[in-house]
Amino acid sequence: MQFAYIDYVVFCTYIVVIVGAGLWVSREEEGHQKDSADYFLASKALPFWAIGASLIASNISAEQFIGMSGSGFRVGLAIASYEWMAAVTLLVIAWFFLPIYLEKEIFTMPQFLEERYDGRVRTLLAVFWLLVYVFVNLTSVLYLGALAMEEIMGTPFWLGILFLAGFATTYSIYGGLKAVAWTDVIQVAVLIGGGLLTTWFALDAYAESLGADGPVAGLSGLLENASDRFNMVLFEGELTYTDESGRTRDAYQLLPGIGVIFGGMWVANLFYWGCNQYIIQRALAARSLKEAQRGLAFAGYLKLLLPLVVVVPGIVAYALDPAAIGVADDAYPWLLGQYLSPGLRGLAFAALVAAVVSSLASMMNSTATIFTMDLYKTSRFGEEASERRLVGVGRLVSLACIAVACVMAPQLAAFDQVFQYIQEYTGFVSPGVLAVFMTGLFWSKATPGAALVSAVLSIPLSAGMKWLAPGVPFMRRMLIVFFLSVALIVGVSLLEGKGQDHPKAVDLSDVNLVGDPVYNVAAFGILGITAALYAAFW
Question: What's the CATH code of the domain at 341?
Answer without folding.
Answer: 1.20.1730.10
